Amino acid sequence: MGLKPEGLVVRVSVGSDGLLRSASAEGHAGTEPAGRNLACAGATVLLRTAYETLAQYPGVELAGEAPSPGLLSFRVRRAAPETEGMVRGVGDFLLVGLSSLEREFPGAIRIINESERRL
Questions:
Q1: Domains of the chain by range and CATH?
Q2: Quick one: which of 49, 70, 79, 87 has the fewest CB in 10 Å?
Q3: Given pLDDT bands bounded at 50, 70 and 90, which one contains residue 6?
């Protein structure tokens, strides 16, 4: 994923149709050791929960990886029409939760919204 970012950088992509397309996180928020940083833990839980929730929906195909500590990414490869509302809801939930963390821990997390649609 290139150069190591300062702090935690989270990228989220939502299509113009409002469907979550992908999410990724790279880095570590703050000076606390891994496993003791609330900002990192919060972002990790939100991202993992989004992935695990989407993975439970029949008709949703995902690709994801967490190759090493500080790196996590997933993308929605396919969402059947009957799952679009749920995929949209998970994406909205993820963006609102991450934005809340960014406000709660200024400077520790940077959210990059690479979306065609803005909340």
A1: 8-113 (3.30.70.1490)
A2: 49
A3: low
HEC string of the chain?
Answer: CCCCCCCEEEEEEECCCCCEEEEEEECCCCCCCCCCCHHHHHHHHHHHHHHHHHHCCCCEEEEEEEEECCEEEEEEEEECHHHHHHHHHHHHHHHHHHHHHHHHCCCCEEEEECCCCCC
Query: What size, in residues, is the chain?
Result: 119
Structure tokens at 18: 């409002």
Entry pTM: 0.86
Q: What is the pLDDT of residues 67-85, one digit of tens each?
A: 888 889 999 999 999 999 9
Residue corresponding to tokens 């200024």: 106
Checking if the pLDDT of 119 tops 70, the result is: no
The amino acid sitting at 105 is F
